[in-house]
Amino acid sequence: MKQVSILITAIVFTALIISCGNNNAASKETNNSTVATFDLTAMKKLIKEKSEKFTQAHITRDTAYLNNIFTKDANVYSPNSDIITGRDAIAAVNNEWVNYGIKEFTEETTSFFGNEDYLIDEGTYYLRYGEDNIIDNGKYINIWKKENSEWKMCSSIWNTSLPITTTE
């Protein structure tokens, strides 16, 4: 009888240990499914869509979109210019930029990284503008951060890689 009692105790004890282990696994599953994880692939897709709208807005002269894609305290580092700081200052120069008559503008991401606080999009651009069809190829870095739950550019820098040319 003593052996049966020890056997039953061992079985109950083993069942409790296994059951506790299973509950912890289920608890971890539940916790992982309820905790939001940062998805860099999804963010890259989102920023690509925003960048496509950004380049298209230059062609269509959609300054409302261009003005609102930047954070309130954004910095723009355009070639041969002082730093442009703040959405209002950026809005003032957006009118100048779109009035160059931009006909083509594309950006191609070459590197993308970040976290839930900042996203960095590095790449190259192609720009064709003006009556003389000036062509500018260069590189850029756009830094994105959330403002009012929306990803916006907080810093943008670009410069020419090749001599600017014209097409006939």
Please describe the topology of this protein.
Elements: H1 2-34, H2 40-60, H3 63-68, E1 70-77, E2 84-85, H4 87-98, E3 102-114, E4 118-129, E5 134-147, E6 150-160, E7 165-166
Parallel strand pairs: 1-6
Antiparallel strand pairs: 1-2, 3-4, 4-5, 5-6, 5-7
Pfam families: DUF4440
Signal peptide: 1-25
Protein name: Nuclear transport factor 2 family protein
Radius of gyration: 27 Å
Low-confidence stretches: 12-31
Q: Give the total of domains.
A: 2
What share of residues are in beta strands?
A: 35-45%
CATH fold assignment of the largest domain:
Nuclear Transport Factor 2, Chain: A
The assigned CATH architecture of the largest domain is Roll
- Work out the helix count: 4
The percent range for helix content is 40-55%
How far apart, in Å, are the first and last alpha carbons? Answer: 103 Å
Characterize the biggest β-sheet.
Answer: 7 strands, mixed
Helix-strand pattern, N to C?
HHHEEHEEEEE
Overall pLDDT level: 84
Shape descriptor: globular
Q: Structural class, please?
A: alpha+beta
CATH class of the largest domain: Alpha Beta
Number of strands: 7
Compact summary:
The protein folds into 2 domains: 1-35; 41-166, Nuclear Transport Factor 2, Chain: A (Roll), CATH 3.10.450.
What do these coordinates show?
With 168 residues, the chain is an alpha+beta fold. It has two domains: 1-35; 41-166, Nuclear Transport Factor 2, Chain: A, CATH 3.10.450. The protein is built from four helices and seven strands. Strands 1, 2, 3, 4, 5, 6 and 7 form a seven-stranded mixed beta sheet that branches. A hairpin with a 6-residue loop joins strand 1 (70-77) and strand 2. The chain is globular.
